[in-house]
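Table S2 (text version). Query chain:
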Amino acid sequence: MAVVSTRRVRRGDVFLVDLDPTRGTEIQKTRPCVVVSPDELNLHLRTVIVAPLTSVSHPFPFRVPCRFQSKSGHIVTDQLRTVDRQRLVRPLGRLPAPTLARLLGVLQEMFAP
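Corresponding structure-token output:
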């Protein structure tokens, strides 16, 4: 698989990410994921924090509805993963700004004291 190592990775970018191997009920396969880690971290670290996108999902409170590449689904914030850039197979695009803002709001709510 190709590796995205020299390309600048930014929050809101969507990549095809190889999530295997997994354990238990972790979301698996190679699937689209949105980068949620801050750009400052993405600039300096070889790892990025991602949230998987899925078209087969139930609308749980912390899953963000989205439409990406003409497909409707959810961003699965309860399955955040920190992955090495070697798992980033290829770039797919960017989330629309309103969806990214909604996602960041949900993450803030999830981790608020």
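Notes on Table S2: The longest helix spans residues 97-111. The helical segments are 39-44, 97-111.
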